[in-house]
Amino acid sequence: MLKKVDATLKLKRNEYKAQIDDLTLKIGDVQRRCKDANIPVMILLEGWSVAGKGSRIRTLIRALDPRGFEVFTIHKPNEDERLRPYMWRFWKRTPANGKIHVFDRSWYRALMRGHDKHEMELANPIKDVLSFERTLADSGVLIIKLFLHVTVKEQRRRLKSLADSPETAWRINEDDWVQNCRYDEVLNTFSKMLEDSDHDAAHWTVIEANNGRFADVKIYRTVLEAMERALDAKENPDNNVPKDIKLPVGTNSTSTLSAVNLNRSLERDEYSERLRTAQNEI
User: Fold this and answer.
1) How much is the pTM?
2) Backbone angles phi, psi at 70, to 5 degrees
3) Would you say the C-alpha torsion 68, 73, 79, 81 has a positive or negative sign?
4) In Å, how far are 65, 212, 224 from 22, measured between CA atoms?
5) Collapsed DSSP state (helix, strand, coil) of residue 46
6) Bridge-partner residues for 206, per DSSP?
7) How crowded is residue 46: how many other Cβ atoms within 10 Å of its Cβ?
8) Within 13 Å and on the Cβ side, how many CA atoms surround 2?
9) 133-154 per-position pLDDT tens digit
10) Edge-to-edge, what's the strand order for the sheet holding 69-73?
11) C-alpha–C-alpha distance, residues 209 and 215, integer Å
């Protein structure tokens, strides 16, 4: 998937200015409409190290009413979170109706940076992630998944720029450099993850992120279109659900409960003996 993406696409400053102003107004309007329609929205940004997730989030939320959104930066689980199932910390961050939650990294840490033992405790990470997302989508949550893609040269340039400044060197670590050195291998891993976790309830959109202006505009358009589709589905349900759907009718009229014999009983002595045996086994 990622091999076919041209991450070097650019947008000139004047083109960016003309588009972003219009998109900013539309995003603000669609946020208010989603609030009125009680549609909860989850926007998650994943991608390469130093792909610009934080910067893209800062640009996105400038267009939003601050009363209607929250931003969550996902790090390694803390001590309390390690004592609970992996997905617990994401369940408790699901938005209320009409709210928007933005994630700087997400539950995909388990698939992208699986060096943490707790994150690898998922028996089947892809299956668990898809189940989590489908459950949310079935309950009415709109999930917008964005993957920021940069070239190996651009990633190396950004890493070096950050490492050379005492003010920003703390932002990168050995794992970031390893990712760049093993870029082709990691590219294949990320591509497979995107393909395996792309589904009707929550599709991925790859953002060409070498150029920040191009990435900002594409993110705005992606979020705007997704929220407008969710509003249309909410406002016009008849256009999204076939009218001729019927519940399946079984050919066998005998149910499981009807086969249960409720007349069975135990004598008092037998009951006492079986109870003692069961208690000893427990």
Assistant:
1) 0.84
2) -135, 150
3) positive
4) 16, 18, 11
5) strand
6) 147
7) 25
8) 25
9) 999 999 999 999 999 999 999 9
10) 69-73, 100-104, 41-47, 142-149, 204-208
11) 5
